[in-house]
Amino acid sequence: MKEFSDSQIFELYQTDKEKAFNILVRKYQEKLYWHIRKIVLTHDNADDVLQNTFMKAWKGLKKFNNNSMLYTWLYRIATNEALTFIKKDKSRQNISYSNTDENNIINLLEDDVYFEGSEFEKKFQLALATLPEKQRLVFNMKYFDEMKYEQISDILQTSVGGLKASYHHAVNKIKEFLKED
Amino acid sequence: MDEFNDIKNKTGFKVPDGYFNNFADKMAEMIKEEPEPKVKTFSLKPILSMAAMFISVLIISWTVFSYFNKSSKQITNSDALAYLECNIDDISDDLLYESYEDDIISSQTYTSDEIDYLEEELTDDEIIDNLDF
């Protein structure tokens, strides 16, 4: 399938909104899904958040400024939706994704039929869950998604220097966590 | 720590088969149920209503103010007479005459024929009787 540029999608949106939106979903769904999944951990939650993200995008596309990066805009929506979901879920189920209660994270991963990670991968997710929210986001985007600091800076609205520091702290904390038995 | 570098490509997370093929179709269905996004248009209606209300308040305030202002400053004839009675000694004859001059002139509008008649036919006493004041 032909890959459309953001400006082509936006141009098409002016004449055929639904078609343009369908192309936009197909272009970004995988990237956004994995970004969300690493935050909310389970497939069902990631699916819900991804739907919310695209619905927000659909409603906001008309007001979207073509001068902004569509990719950055969508990532920002996805990140906000994922974090909002976690906060709501935490208060609803009293589950924490970012504290040291390892059992909660392990239960969450083991209950998800779409997690087939090894013990090390499980421990890695535990290590990530111990990080503060911002460090976890930066680590995911830099390490897994291989984004440039400038891109992350646009999405999280944080200075590049601050992001580098966050990433550095995150890597050290994860390494320390993995060293523990 | 080699595993640390390997994990980048294998997180253990999976998705149902065909998930990404179906997701876009699912979203297409969802947006059909959702009304088409509308941008809030700028409407003059509330601004015009506010302006009309403001102008109405201004007009009412001005009318009420003018009424009270006028009534408080308006001097009635009885007020003027009362003032004159009390202060008649302080007012010079010239000033008194000037004040009444217009009334005297306007109330005594005679044509030239009438004036000739008055001068020729009437005595001084009769002329004085003819004067209104």
Describe the overall structure:
The complex is a heterodimer of chains A (181) and B (133). Chain A folds into 2 domains: 1-94, RNA polymerase sigma factor, region 2, helix turn helix motif (Rna Polymerase Sigma Factor, Chain: A), CATH 1.10.1740; 98-181, Arc Repressor Mutant, subunit A (Orthogonal Bundle), CATH 1.10.10. In chain A, 33% of the residues are buried. In chain A, α1 crosses α2 (17-40), α2 (17-40) crosses α4 and α3 (43-60) crosses α4 (70-93). The termini of chain A are far apart. Chain A is built from 9 helices and no strands. The longest helix of chain A has 24 residues, at 17-40. Chain A is an all-alpha fold and 181 residues long. The model of chain B has no long low-confidence stretch (mean pLDDT 71). The longest helix of chain B has 29 residues, at 45-73. Chain B has helices at 2-6, 19-33, 45-73, 77-87, 93-107, 112-121, 124-130. Chain B is an all-alpha fold. Chain B has a domain at 92-130. The chains are: A mainly alpha (181), B mainly alpha (133). Chain A binds chain B through residues 17-18, 21-22, 25-26, 29-30, 33-34, 37-38, 43, 47, 50-51, 54-55, 58-63, 109, 114-118, 120-122, 124-125, 143-144, 174-175, 178, and chain B through 1, 3-4, 7-8, 10-16, 19-20, 23-24, 26-28, 30-32, 34, 36-39.
Topology:
The complex is a heterodimer of chains A (181) and B (133).
Chain A: H1 6-15, H2 17-40, H3 43-60, H4 70-93, H5 102-111, H6 119-129, H7 133-144, H8 149-156, H9 160-179
Helix pairs in contact in A: 1-2, 2-3, 2-4, 3-4, 4-8, 5-6, 6-9, 7-9
Chain B: H1 2-6, H2 19-33, H3 45-73, H4 77-87, H5 93-107, H6 112-121, H7 124-130
